[in-house]
Amino acid sequence: MEILLAILIGSLYTAGVYMLLRRSILKFIIGIIFISNATNLLVFMSSGLVKGNPPFTAPDGTPLEQTADPLNQALVLTAIVIGLGVVAYTLALKYKFFELTKTDDLDELKQTEEV
Amino acid sequence: MILTTLPILIPLVLIIVLMFSKSSIFSEVVTIIGTFTLLAVSLIATIYVNNNGLLVAYIGGWQAPYGITLVIDHFSSILLLTTSIILVSISIYALKYFPKTSQYKRFYIFFFTLTMGINGAFITGDIFNLYVWFEVMLLSSFVLITFGNQKQQLQGGIKYLAMNLVGSLFLLAGIGLIYGKTGTLNIAKLAEIIGNYEGEIFWLNTSGILIFIAFGIKAALFPLFYWLPASYHTPNITITSLFAGILTKVGVYALVRFFTLFLAIDQEFWQNLILTIAGLTMLSGGMAASTQYDNRKILSYHIISQIGYMIMGLGIFTTLSIAGAIFFIMHNMIAKTNVFLTAGMIDKIKGTYNLKNLGGLYKSNPLMAFLFIIPAFALAGIPQLSGFFAKFILIKAGFEDGHYITTSVALFTGLLTLYSMIKIWNEAFLKKAPEHVSDNKNIKLTFKDYLPSVILGSISILMGIFASEVFDFVHHAAESLMDNATYIKSVLK
Questions:
Q1: Does the distance separating the beta carbons of B169 and A112 come in below 8 Å?
Q2: Which of B55, B61, B405, B465 has the most crowded CB, counting CB atoms within 10 A?
Q3: With a CB-CB cutoff of 8 Å, which residues 245-264 of chain B face chain A?
Q4: Average pLDDT of the residues in B305-318
Q5: CA distances (Å), origin B482, targets A111, B208, B320
Q6: What confidence tier does A112 reach under pLDDT thresholds 50, 70, 90?
Q7: Nearest Cα to B91, choosing from B110, B77, B118, B117?
Q8: Are B280 and B339 a contacting pair, CB within 8 Å?
Q9: Cβ atoms within 10 A of the Cβ of B267, count?
Q10: Chain B touched by A87 (CB under 8 Å)
């Protein structure tokens, strides 16, 4: 399972980098989404996977053996929420920019140099 | 300890108050009161830390290393104090220089979200929490940099956003891997684990490199700095000055914190890497600055070259050099903001940032010339101003430790800085105003326009006069960074 997820993370990163290097702004944003999901999975995986043992304690409070690490899951939740906010902002920015310039081409971003 | 959480809580309360603000005058008053309160709080925190040792707070009552810890040590208190001085001057500056559009009131809200992110990044003692504060800071800076909604700002915003988003994903990946390897996120616990580990710790280098790249992007280090000059000149000058003074230095802060407290494992490898990058950063920034003719662009490239000095202090890695780096960060935050403020003043009178269309300001406005020359000379390192001592400490540390090449590069970059400053001085102040540019704007600057620059300028001078006191102060901070035992003991009681 870990190998499979590792391959998935790797391919997500690859796809993400490929999309980041495209000229279209929208594809750039898709690239960001890929990379941020790959990173989330990486954080989730970082302390290993434990199957079928949720992080609960026994009724008397003693910890069970070999439970999944809850902290990673909390970290990933935070990271997902942040990623969602960032992508929402990026899409809004792209929309505003498209409204103003009618272009989706990153190579057209040259007005900043002509000050 | 309530004092520890105040630098985050005050901006949070102010954001909520400002959201319900009906008039822009109310927002202005609240902002100015707020920034002065922050200044007072950080001053008290600095004095407290200096006298009694570290301020530690455990959020939610969870003891370290399990919960989120907030720590104010010497280094963070110094940066908190410097930041709040800049915030005070920017809040006064915004009254006069930020256009009174429909966005004017919203500017103050995001001003404080940015403040909250910066202060949070300075005082957190938990690396994942640091990532969260970086995101708070980043998102508010995204909003601020696109204020104005013109083509220029949106384009600059996209450039700024692209690189910084990738940077924060690198940071998250690095932090995740560190957690996987060590099982903790607490900085003090990490320092303890790594300090007590026997044998080679090369397995931490992967996370180290990821984090170094992430902070390198934020701090605008050599191969990763292209977002900065592409975007810093597009927003309103108030926002540019705010960013120029503070944002990149938060990246430097994080680098110093990480690489002194726990990441400096394979010292030789990191030292060489950091020193090489520092030299290239200084040189490329300084050279690029000297080819520009837009006032803001010269100064933007300058930010990069000055970041090189701070990183050089980290790379030399002796107590003296770290002290020099902290001194340099303090001096640079203040002087850099100040030169941007004067660039804004020139623009207000002349309506342009292009040096070719400027001129004759020395005759028409000697006070402004004086206000420009203080931070400009401080940046160039003229004796008796703050920059001279900062550079002197760094270069002394470099030669003492035998890093001749990087130190010589630093000396040479000083000349490049002086050249750029003299260029601005000659073009904007000394030469005759070009005839084809009509000086139709009959704007007289009032005391309020000058005040922020006067505050920052006098601090630059005072830091030069009381250099030995400031040095004792930063040396203390450097000692506590180099010897992390006190930090570990105070956090993990």
A1: no
A2: B55
A3: none
A4: 92
A5: 46, 18, 10
A6: low
A7: B110
A8: no
A9: 10
A10: no
Spatial separation of the C-alpha atoms in residues B81 and B42, rounded to whole Å = 5
- Count how many domains chain B has: 1
Question: Residue B264 — pLDDT band, cuts 50, 70, 90?
Answer: low
> CB burial class (10 A; 0-12, 13-18, 19+) of residue B335?
buried
Q: What's the rounded mean pLDDT across residues A71-89?
A: 92
Q: Domains, chain A, ranges and CATH?
A: 2-48+66-113 (1.10.287.3510)
Q: Show the CA angle centred on residue B441, arms to residues B439 and B445, nearest 5°.
A: 115
DSSP per residue over B188-233, as a string?
HHHHHHHHH--S--GGGHHHHHHHHHHHHHHHT-GGG-THHHHHTT
Short-list B220, B215, B227, B221, CA closest to B158: B227
Is some CB atom of chain A closer than 8 A to the CB atom of B141?
no
The answer to whether B307 touches B248, Cβ cutoff 8 Å, is yes
pLDDT higher than threshold 60 for residue A115: no
| Residue A101 confidence (pLDDT) above 90 | no
Distance between CA atoms of residues B290 and A113, nearest Å: 16
Nearest to B397 by CA among B467, B309, B277: B309
Exposure of A102 by Cβ count < 10 A (0-12 exposed, 13-18 middle, 19+ buried)? exposed
User: Residues B443, B348: contact at Cβ < 8 Å?
Assistant: yes
| CB-based contact A101 B151, cutoff 8 Å | yes
Cβ distance B437 to B362 under 8 Å? no
Give tens-digit pLDDT for B41-60: 999 999 999 998 888 999 88
Peptide bond connecting B366 to the previous residue in cis, omega within 30 degrees of 0: no
Q: What is the pLDDT of residue A48?
A: 81
Probe site for chain A from B62, B133, B147, B154 (most A CB atoms < 10 A): B154
- Is beta strand B69-72 parallel, antiparallel or unpaired with respect to B55-58? antiparallel
Write the CB contacts of B101 (distance below 8 Å, at least 6 apart in sequence).
Answer: none
B57: β partners: B70
Token look-up 């030669």 returns: B399
- The C-alpha torsion from A60 through A62 and A68 to A71, rounded to 10°, is 100
A89 within 8 A of B142, measured Cβ to Cβ:
yes
Mean pLDDT (chain B, rounded): 90
Q: Do A35 and B159 touch (CB under 8 A)?
A: no
Cα(B436)–Cα(B425) distance, rounded to whole angstroms?
20
Nearest-CA distance B256 → chain A (Å): 24
Chain B nearest-CA distance from A59, in A, is 22
B142: its two tokens: 């995204």
Q: Residue B379: what residue type?
A: L
Sign of the alpha-carbon dihedral angle for B69, B191, B82, B48: positive
DSSP, collapsed to helix, strand or coil, labels residue A106 as helix
Q: If DSSP codes are grouped into helix, strand and coil, which group holds residue B248?
A: helix
Nearest by CB: A97 against B154, B176, B234: B154
Query: B239: domain range?
Result: 2-491
B161 to chain A: closest CA residue? A90
Contact B55/B4 with Cβ under 8 angstroms? yes
Question: Rg for chain A (alpha carbons), in Å?
Answer: 20
